[in-house]
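Repro:
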Amino acid sequence: MSKMDALRAMREARYEQAAARAGQAAKTTPAKTAATTAARTAAKRKPPVAPPAEESGTPGQEPALCGHRNMSGRTCTREHGHSAKSHRYS
């Protein structure tokens, strides 16, 4: 069997698996699908972020930082509980 024949066989096998999975998904009931979708969205929701506690008037003290880390390990420099959708990393 040549390399191209092997690749073609692998592609056809993956196609058949995907078609079988699509057939199984079509057999599920709409109520079951809606329940699982609702459960997934509830799991994705984040708890509300409490605003940082006010410091006792210490001048020059910076507010607490967000602390969100990206994949490379950098941390967000915005204030804790910021409303911006994006983070600023440094």
